[in-house]
Write a structure and sequence with these properties.
Strand content: 15-25%
Helix content: 10-25%
Shape: globular
Number of helices: 4
Strand order of the largest sheet: 2-1-3-4-6-5-7
CATH topology: Rossmann fold
Low-confidence stretches: 1-10
CATH architecture: 3-Layer(aba) Sandwich
Distance between the termini: 20 Å
Largest sheet: 7 strands, mixed
Mean pLDDT: 84
């Protein structure tokens, strides 16, 4: 994919940087990638676009890096309501309804300092990112990504 595509809405898919994921995986030990494909999955068990992770039951410790288009709200809603531990890499869009409806006061938020370089790209993303962690009964905690986890 070229740089022009990266800075457009031509694709909603942003492949998680492997080293960034590995550091989170060391903390959470992910079991299921809820929205992936065979090339970008981070877990042995994963749901593809064809399987539609939104229609599947989520269990165990879930990793989620959803498509970043208009459909992101459905993924965030599902994560918020799943009842299982879900860790998501999301654009830091605090001005959206999905942030206020399904993240704020419902999850731990870790804002990432700087901008990630998503898999396969030389340039940093044109938007800030955050890690959101939904745990049963958890209220909002806001933090910066620890210095040991580099974007």
């Amino acid at each position: 994919m070229n740089t022009k595509t990266m800075f457009s809405s031509a694709t909603p898919e942003w492949s998680t940087p492997q080293d960034f994921y590995d550091q989170l995986n060391a903390e959470f030990k992910f079991e299921l990638d809820v929205c992936a494909n065979a090339k970008n999955t981070k877990c042995d068990k994963f749901y593809t676009k064809e399987q539609d992770g939104l229609l599947q039951e989520w269990g165990g410790t879930c990793w989620m890096n959803p498509p970043y288009g208009h459909g992101i709200k459905a993924w965030v809603k599902k994560a918020s309501e799943s009842g299982t531990l879900v860790v998501a890499l999301l654009p830091a869009r605090t001005d959206t309804s999905w942030f206020w409806d399904y993240i704020y006061n419902k999850a731990e938020i870790r804002f990432i300092r700087g901008r990630l370089k998503f898999g396969g790209y030389k340039n940093s993303a044109p938007f800030p990112s955050m890690i959101v962690i939904w745990r049963a009964g958890h209220q909002t905690t806001i933090a910066l990504i620890p210095p040991t986890i580099k974007p």
